[in-house]
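Quick one: structure for this chain?
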Amino acid sequence: MSKKKTQQALASTELPTEVSQNCLKNRENREAIDLVQDLVDDELINELNMLSEVQKLLATRIGDSDQRLKNLNDCKANLEYDIRDKEECLRLDEHCYKLNNGSAGLQQVAQPSLYDGHTTTVDKHESFSQDNLEKSEVARVMSCLQRELNDFSINKSNDELQKQSELVGSMFRLRLKELTAAKTNLDGQLEKTNQEISSVEDSLHQLREALRSKDGPMKVATTRFAVRSKRPNVEQTRDYVHGGLLSEINDISGSQEALKQQIASAEETLHRLLKNKERLQQDIEIKKKSIQIDEQQCLRLRKTLSWRGLTNGHWVVEHYHIRRKV
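Got it. Here's what it folds into:
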């Protein structure tokens, strides 16, 4: 029973091993900055190493149990042979005890044949049986000790794996908390960036409208200046109207240049904000994928793995099937 229990305990390590391996494999699909060996990976690796050590230990215990069982069977066979021989000896001695001068089947036996080389002394006879008894008792005691050792190894391994499983779960939850906080922060930055983009786009629209509004006055002023330049002879004077038109043209031109510079600066700001928005969106997608992997593909799988431990010899997976490689 102890060997079977140990075999069941060994078999029960296969599923958690596969789950841990799948978690590490799934986490390889993280991207960019999130593809890093973090505390979760470290504890998953520790869990796999621990499971491997437990498997080696239980395999050793099973091998030792096989040897104890072989010793018990050997002692059992020796005792059975000894009992059969003694029963036959007892039958023969009882037959001899009942013989008398009138018994049938009496025969003359040659004297030398009464003794042969196969006879043994009483001390050797008693020692032989005593040795069988002592060996069987030692084998029985060793078998009991082996059962206790098997149970101790199973319980100790069970406790260690239980604690490690809880530690891995804690690391997953801590990592998810960090990822969620990072994503929330990125979402906030994206919202502010969108607001800034909207504000800059509004400003750009107003600046372009203001620039376009300068086209009419500029055309009027330059047309007036061009028409007055056709005045004949001495009438072509630099009067106050001439000066006023030049001043107006320069003012409008200066305003247009200032507006163009403001538009260029706003467009540069908008380009920078759009690039920042794209980066934030990419970072958010990376965080969303990491959260999905840890929460849906890993932690959800570990949660559906109902812990019954090695002591019950098996694990249970509900509503989830691991695809095994053939």
